[in-house]
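Project outcomes to date are best conveyed with an example. Our students and postdoctoral researchers have been running inverse folding experiments weekly, and each run begins with a structure described purely in C-alpha coordinates. The record below, which covers 205 residues, was selected by the lab manager from last quarter's runs and is presented without edits.
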Protein backbone atom coordinates (compact mmCIF):
# COMPACT_ATOMS: atom_id res chain seq x y z
CA UNK A 1 0.00 0.00 0.00
CA UNK A 2 2.74 2.47 0.94
CA UNK A 3 4.54 1.76 -2.31
CA UNK A 4 1.48 2.86 -4.29
CA UNK A 5 0.75 5.86 -2.09
CA UNK A 6 4.36 7.01 -2.51
CA UNK A 7 3.93 6.80 -6.29
CA UNK A 8 0.72 8.81 -6.20
CA UNK A 9 2.35 11.54 -4.09
CA UNK A 10 5.29 12.02 -6.47
CA UNK A 11 5.26 15.14 -8.67
CA UNK A 12 4.54 14.58 -12.35
CA UNK A 13 7.54 13.19 -14.19
CA UNK A 14 7.37 12.97 -17.98
CA UNK A 15 10.26 10.51 -18.10
CA UNK A 16 8.88 8.22 -15.37
CA UNK A 17 5.08 8.23 -15.74
CA UNK A 18 2.84 6.52 -13.19
CA UNK A 19 0.10 4.66 -15.05
CA UNK A 20 -2.87 2.83 -13.55
CA UNK A 21 -3.96 -0.25 -15.50
CA UNK A 22 -7.09 -2.37 -15.24
CA UNK A 23 -9.68 -4.10 -17.40
CA UNK A 24 -13.44 -4.02 -17.61
CA UNK A 25 -15.54 -6.92 -18.90
CA UNK A 26 -18.47 -5.79 -21.00
CA UNK A 27 -21.48 -7.92 -21.88
CA UNK A 28 -22.86 -7.13 -25.32
CA UNK A 29 -26.64 -6.76 -25.22
CA UNK A 30 -29.17 -6.23 -27.98
CA UNK A 31 -32.66 -4.79 -27.46
CA UNK A 32 -35.40 -7.38 -27.86
CA UNK A 33 -37.78 -4.65 -29.04
CA UNK A 34 -37.09 -1.37 -30.75
CA UNK A 35 -36.65 1.44 -28.17
CA UNK A 36 -38.93 4.45 -28.21
CA UNK A 37 -36.75 7.52 -28.90
CA UNK A 38 -36.74 10.44 -26.51
CA UNK A 39 -38.81 13.51 -27.21
CA UNK A 40 -39.42 16.80 -25.40
CA UNK A 41 -40.51 16.00 -21.86
CA UNK A 42 -39.96 12.24 -22.23
CA UNK A 43 -36.72 10.20 -21.99
CA UNK A 44 -35.84 7.29 -24.25
CA UNK A 45 -37.76 4.17 -23.33
CA UNK A 46 -36.73 0.59 -23.87
CA UNK A 47 -38.00 -2.82 -22.88
CA UNK A 48 -36.47 -4.53 -19.84
CA UNK A 49 -35.90 -7.70 -21.91
CA UNK A 50 -32.71 -7.98 -23.93
CA UNK A 51 -30.72 -10.49 -25.97
CA UNK A 52 -27.17 -11.49 -25.02
CA UNK A 53 -24.95 -11.42 -28.09
CA UNK A 54 -21.48 -11.95 -26.66
CA UNK A 55 -18.93 -10.23 -24.48
CA UNK A 56 -15.83 -8.10 -24.79
CA UNK A 57 -13.01 -6.74 -22.67
CA UNK A 58 -11.90 -3.14 -22.26
CA UNK A 59 -8.29 -2.43 -21.25
CA UNK A 60 -7.86 0.92 -19.51
CA UNK A 61 -4.56 2.65 -18.78
CA UNK A 62 -4.66 6.10 -17.21
CA UNK A 63 -1.90 8.54 -16.35
CA UNK A 64 -3.74 10.59 -13.72
CA UNK A 65 -1.40 13.59 -13.43
CA UNK A 66 -1.13 14.06 -17.19
CA UNK A 67 -4.83 13.69 -17.92
CA UNK A 68 -4.05 10.93 -20.40
CA UNK A 69 -5.71 7.58 -20.93
CA UNK A 70 -5.34 4.70 -23.39
CA UNK A 71 -8.30 2.42 -24.12
CA UNK A 72 -8.46 -0.79 -26.13
CA UNK A 73 -11.36 -3.17 -26.76
CA UNK A 74 -10.38 -6.83 -27.11
CA UNK A 75 -12.18 -10.15 -27.39
CA UNK A 76 -10.54 -11.53 -24.25
CA UNK A 77 -8.32 -10.50 -21.34
CA UNK A 78 -5.82 -13.37 -21.40
CA UNK A 79 -2.04 -13.34 -21.06
CA UNK A 80 -1.53 -12.68 -24.76
CA UNK A 81 -3.94 -9.72 -24.75
CA UNK A 82 -2.28 -8.27 -21.65
CA UNK A 83 1.22 -8.64 -23.10
CA UNK A 84 0.25 -7.00 -26.40
CA UNK A 85 -1.36 -4.08 -24.58
CA UNK A 86 1.71 -3.53 -22.38
CA UNK A 87 3.89 -3.58 -25.50
CA UNK A 88 1.56 -1.01 -27.08
CA UNK A 89 1.93 1.25 -24.04
CA UNK A 90 5.72 0.98 -24.02
CA UNK A 91 6.36 1.34 -27.75
CA UNK A 92 3.53 3.57 -28.98
CA UNK A 93 2.15 5.58 -26.07
CA UNK A 94 5.33 6.16 -24.03
CA UNK A 95 8.17 5.60 -26.54
CA UNK A 96 10.41 8.25 -24.94
CA UNK A 97 9.86 7.38 -21.28
CA UNK A 98 12.83 6.02 -19.34
CA UNK A 99 10.67 4.02 -16.93
CA UNK A 100 6.92 3.35 -16.92
CA UNK A 101 5.57 2.57 -13.44
CA UNK A 102 2.38 0.55 -13.96
CA UNK A 103 -0.07 0.02 -11.08
CA UNK A 104 -2.17 -3.13 -11.48
CA UNK A 105 -3.93 -5.84 -9.50
CA UNK A 106 -2.87 -9.42 -8.88
CA UNK A 107 -4.81 -11.14 -11.66
CA UNK A 108 -2.89 -14.21 -12.81
CA UNK A 109 -2.48 -12.80 -16.33
CA UNK A 110 -0.74 -9.63 -15.06
CA UNK A 111 2.77 -11.04 -14.91
CA UNK A 112 6.20 -10.77 -16.47
CA UNK A 113 5.71 -14.40 -17.48
CA UNK A 114 2.86 -13.33 -19.77
CA UNK A 115 5.29 -11.12 -21.68
CA UNK A 116 7.87 -13.91 -21.96
CA UNK A 117 5.32 -16.47 -23.18
CA UNK A 118 3.72 -14.11 -25.70
CA UNK A 119 6.59 -12.03 -27.01
CA UNK A 120 9.63 -14.21 -26.50
CA UNK A 121 12.58 -13.89 -24.16
CA UNK A 122 14.47 -11.08 -25.90
CA UNK A 123 11.46 -8.87 -26.57
CA UNK A 124 10.14 -9.37 -23.04
CA UNK A 125 13.56 -8.52 -21.63
CA UNK A 126 13.66 -5.32 -23.70
CA UNK A 127 10.24 -4.20 -22.48
CA UNK A 128 10.87 -5.11 -18.84
CA UNK A 129 13.96 -2.89 -18.78
CA UNK A 130 11.53 -0.02 -19.32
CA UNK A 131 8.60 -1.17 -17.15
CA UNK A 132 8.02 -1.57 -13.42
CA UNK A 133 4.94 -3.40 -12.18
CA UNK A 134 3.54 -2.15 -8.86
CA UNK A 135 0.83 -4.46 -7.54
CA UNK A 136 -2.06 -3.56 -5.28
CA UNK A 137 -2.29 -5.58 -2.05
CA UNK A 138 -4.65 -8.54 -2.19
CA UNK A 139 -8.25 -7.52 -1.49
CA UNK A 140 -7.29 -3.85 -2.00
CA UNK A 141 -7.74 -3.27 -5.71
CA UNK A 142 -9.43 0.04 -4.77
CA UNK A 143 -5.86 1.37 -4.48
CA UNK A 144 -5.57 1.11 -8.25
CA UNK A 145 -6.29 4.57 -9.62
CA UNK A 146 -7.48 3.00 -12.90
CA UNK A 147 -10.67 1.96 -11.10
CA UNK A 148 -11.56 5.64 -10.75
CA UNK A 149 -11.27 6.10 -14.51
CA UNK A 150 -13.32 2.95 -15.19
CA UNK A 151 -16.10 4.25 -12.93
CA UNK A 152 -16.16 7.48 -14.94
CA UNK A 153 -16.20 5.49 -18.19
CA UNK A 154 -19.16 3.47 -16.94
CA UNK A 155 -21.08 6.54 -15.86
CA UNK A 156 -20.46 8.49 -19.07
CA UNK A 157 -20.23 5.80 -21.74
CA UNK A 158 -20.44 2.05 -21.15
CA UNK A 159 -23.18 1.56 -18.57
CA UNK A 160 -25.84 0.94 -21.21
CA UNK A 161 -26.76 -1.62 -23.84
CA UNK A 162 -24.23 -1.93 -26.63
CA UNK A 163 -24.77 -4.76 -29.07
CA UNK A 164 -21.46 -5.25 -30.92
CA UNK A 165 -17.71 -4.76 -30.53
CA UNK A 166 -17.44 -2.26 -33.37
CA UNK A 167 -19.93 0.09 -31.72
CA UNK A 168 -18.31 -0.45 -28.33
CA UNK A 169 -14.91 0.37 -29.81
CA UNK A 170 -16.20 3.52 -31.48
CA UNK A 171 -17.95 4.69 -28.32
CA UNK A 172 -15.07 4.18 -25.89
CA UNK A 173 -12.53 5.62 -28.33
CA UNK A 174 -14.65 8.75 -28.76
CA UNK A 175 -15.06 9.02 -24.99
CA UNK A 176 -11.32 8.63 -24.36
CA UNK A 177 -10.46 11.11 -27.12
CA UNK A 178 -12.72 13.72 -25.53
CA UNK A 179 -11.27 13.10 -22.05
CA UNK A 180 -7.72 13.36 -23.41
CA UNK A 181 -8.50 16.53 -25.32
CA UNK A 182 -9.87 18.06 -22.10
CA UNK A 183 -6.86 16.69 -20.15
CA UNK A 184 -9.12 15.27 -17.45
CA UNK A 185 -6.90 14.43 -14.48
CA UNK A 186 -7.48 12.43 -11.31
CA UNK A 187 -6.61 13.92 -7.94
CA UNK A 188 -5.80 11.09 -5.53
CA UNK A 189 -6.61 12.18 -1.95
CA UNK A 190 -5.88 9.08 0.17
CA UNK A 191 -2.38 9.54 1.66
CA UNK A 192 -0.06 7.62 3.95
CA UNK A 193 -1.27 9.78 6.85
CA UNK A 194 -4.83 8.75 6.06
CA UNK A 195 -3.74 5.11 5.92
CA UNK A 196 -2.06 5.32 9.33
CA UNK A 197 -5.05 7.05 10.90
CA UNK A 198 -7.66 4.66 9.50
CA UNK A 199 -5.83 1.35 9.18
CA UNK A 200 -2.98 1.25 11.68
CA UNK A 201 -4.98 -0.86 14.13
CA UNK A 202 -4.84 -3.68 11.56
CA UNK A 203 -1.07 -3.51 11.05
CA UNK A 204 1.02 -6.48 12.19
CA UNK A 205 4.30 -5.50 13.88
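After processing, the design step wrote out the following sequence:
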Amino acid sequence: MYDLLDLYEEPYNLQKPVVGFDEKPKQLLKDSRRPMPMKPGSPERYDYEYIRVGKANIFVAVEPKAGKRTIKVTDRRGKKDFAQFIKHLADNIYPNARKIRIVLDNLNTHTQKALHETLGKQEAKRLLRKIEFHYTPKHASWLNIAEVEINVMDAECTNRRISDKQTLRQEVNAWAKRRNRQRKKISWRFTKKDADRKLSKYYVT
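The first helix runs from residue 2 to 9. The mean pLDDT is 91. The training component of this project remains on track.
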